């Protein structure tokens, strides 16, 4: 199990979603199924739109969980990846649940006080579970 905290120096919330799109693309190009755990409907809609329009020349086949939970890239809220070996990108404030059932979790950190504090809490939570989360500076 691998848990990475990607740390951006940007303080804009939009930067976090842009980073998520870049990481989705990287994992998808590597042939890995990707599951993006969104915090609410608004964030899910924003991610859906960004995956379509961020770089129009790069189509990434994605779907909402309710429409196709087996798509190469799935966006969901309060649900869980159905594909084995999924890379879970956690956009929620809470730590990803049931991490012991995953191969990889990615947490995204940007420089807002609330997100920094919650990311520290999540980092410690994963450590208490016996994992060794890694910090990736961008």
Automatic annotation (TrEMBL):
<dbReference type="InterPro" id="IPR036768">
    <property type="entry name" value="PolIII_chi_sf"/>
</dbReference>
<protein>
    <submittedName>
        <fullName>DNA polymerase III chi subunit</fullName>
    </submittedName>
</protein>
<dbReference type="Pfam" id="PF04364">
    <property type="entry name" value="DNA_pol3_chi"/>
</dbReference>
<dbReference type="GO" id="GO:0003887">
    <property type="term" value="F:DNA-directed DNA polymerase activity"/>
</dbReference>
<dbReference type="GO" id="GO:0032298">
    <property type="term" value="P:positive regulation of DNA-templated DNA replication initiation"/>
</dbReference>
<dbReference type="GO" id="GO:0006260">
    <property type="term" value="P:DNA replication"/>
</dbReference>
<dbReference type="InterPro" id="IPR007459">
    <property type="entry name" value="DNA_pol3_chi"/>
</dbReference>
<dbReference type="GO" id="GO:0003677">
    <property type="term" value="F:DNA binding"/>
</dbReference>
